[in-house]
Amino acid sequence: MTTIDKLNDIFRMVFDDDTIQIHSGMTANDVDGWDSLSHVNLITTIEATFNIRFTQKELLTQRNVGELIAGIDRKLTA
Amino acid sequence: MTFTSFSYFLFLPFVYLIFHLTVDRWRWLVLLVASYGFYATLKAPYLLAVLLVVTGISFTCGLRIAARQDEVIRKRWLWLGSIACVAVLALFKYLPFLATRSQSLLLSFNPSLIISIGVSYFTFQAISYMVDIYLDIEEPEYHPGHFALYMAFFPKLLQGPIERAGDLLPQLKQPYKFDHDTVRSGMLLFARGLFKKLIVADRLALYADQVYNNVHSYSGLSLVIGTYVYALQIYFDFAGYTDMARGTGRMFGINLTENFNSPYLAISIADFWRRWHISFSRWILDYIFKPLQMEWRDKGQVGTAAAMVITFLVSGLWHGASWGFVIWGLLHGVYLAASTYYRPYQKRLHKWLGVEKKPWLKWWQVFVTFNLVCLAWVFFRANTIDDALYVLSALFNGIPAVSAEVFSFKYFKEIIIVAVSCGLAALLCLLNRAKQNLSINSGILSYSSMLHFVSVTLIGVLFYIMTFCGVEAKSFIYFQF
Predict the structure, then answer these.
(1) Residue B23 included in any domain
(2) Residue B44 pLDDT grade (very low, low, confident, very high; cuts 50, 70, 90)
(3) Is residue B298 part of a domain?
(4) Domains along chain A?
(5) What is the DSSP letter of B297?
(6) B35 shares its domain with B129
(7) Which of B218, B268, B275, B414 is the most buried (most CB within 10 A)?
């Protein structure tokens, strides 16, 4: 299972929507219910699933799903 | 000098003329000199010195952060610059407050002489610039003149909008191209702001001030109306200023951030903060709330709620050292913190009641949100906490106490001015729309000449108010912050 597939499952679970199909350019504006509260749930679920820990700076500079995936991959290969 | 003063009506065309006649290479210098000159007219030379100090700190720290690769050193420079800016802000914001409480320390010091107009805005802008460089969102500015102009650009210097480097700096460096329509729309936007301030806000202030400066003389509906009137006054005052700032900026080819988007039509407090003082709410969200929220992410909802409360507590303190502002900020923080808990249940409740698609639901939410906002305004506006508590306790004391003064001869002239002005403005809007739909010279009177006639009449009314109605005495509410 690739990072994007795993992440897609997380998105579907966090936002309770089985139709979500994530892509690199996707932002909070494209997902119904992606607000500051659900964003925290998303991040903590990602961190628990991939067993990684983002830094403050990484979290504050991620602008879209593509950057999130790149951040996860960077952590996994580090 | 403020946007509503006569001197500004001489200053602006003069600066524009020089700007227009200067070659692109030196236009930044014209605007910078004009901006410093504009700030100097406040007759508080130390303010100009503070602006220069904050500009120097943020420019230097920005370059240092960008020049280093080592994360620890970059962070150190960011902290150094940010703490220096916050210290400057705190000194000007809270020194008068502290001095009034420790006169023995500063016997010869008169705190009322200290003014800090603009300091809150440009220090926040300086901090955002350094943080954005630290986060690699923006490149540093290497030209000290361009950077100084980014900090001091006069339309947004006194009261914002708080501009991000990425939004404003590129515009200040681009070549200016004269465009008749842009200049005209800038002037119209300025006039719209002038209308909001002089005709609406300053007239509403007559009633709001009367009530809030003598709260114990009123009760019941008078206080409710006084609070609603103040809510409208502060909106028109600040939105009017922002229109004038944006209108001025547009004349020079600069688009400043829109600060308001019909805030009293918000359907929740979160929605209100997406529509009210947008440049400020973006700032506190990005630079206070998000870092705190992410730091406390393991605490779940409690972490988010705590981040909300602290963010808005800081927002209250930013407005000034008074318990009224602190409680105002806390109230908004509590509203938002509570919403993180009840929002999921609210959606389920609406669904269960079968009202989620009813058209009246939105208006009910607007009504509730507006009243929650007004409740917080009570603490923001009241002269003391005792006054605010009295207002809250007496709000529901019945209807008969409506002040007759609002309808008395004392305000008759003001009511006529507002009625005539609003009528002219409405006519202007109607004629504008009709002109867009019909050919220009159709009918007996051409729409263009009617437009000109109404516009000139409206300008005449504005001129009358500026000349005879003591406009200079009523400064913008947000100047004090």
Answers:
(1) yes
(2) confident
(3) yes
(4) 3-77 (1.10.1200.10)
(5) G
(6) yes
(7) B218
**pLDDT at residue B413 above 80?**
no
* Residue at B255 is within a domain: no
- Kindly list the residues of chain A whose beta carbon comes within 8 Å of any beta carbon in chain B: 35-37, 40-41, 43-44, 56-57, 59-61
How far B325 CA sits from the closest chain A CA (Å)? 25
Find, among B154, B163, B156, the residue nearest to B37 by Cα. B154
Q: Which of A15, A57, A62, A67 to mutate to test the interface with B (most CBs of B within 10 A)?
A: A57
On chain A, the residues whose CB falls within 8 A of the CB of B137 are: 61
pLDDT of residue B356: 79
CA gap B36, B49 in Å, rounded: 10
Q: Is the pLDDT of residue B53 over 90?
A: yes
Give me the number of domains chain B comprises.
3
Domain that holds residue B462: 404-480
Residue type, B109: F
Considering the candidates B20, B146, B277, B319, report the single residue annotated as catalytic.
B319
B18 in the same domain as B161: yes
Taken as a whole, chain B contains a residue count of 481
Return the residue of A nearest to B339 by Cα: A37
Are residues B431 and B329 located together in one domain of the fold? Answer: no
Query: Half-sphere exposure of B255 toward its Cβ, with a 13 Å CA cutoff?
Result: 7
Is B209 among the domain residues? no
Is B473 a residue whose pLDDT tops 50? no
Least CB–CB distance from A37: residue in B135, B137, B340? B340
Confidence of residue B143 (pLDDT cuts 50, 70, 90): very high
Residues B161, B306 within the same domain: no
Domain check: are B47 and B139 in the same one? yes
Both structure tokens of B45? 């030379």
Tell me: do B297 and B409 sit in the same domain: no
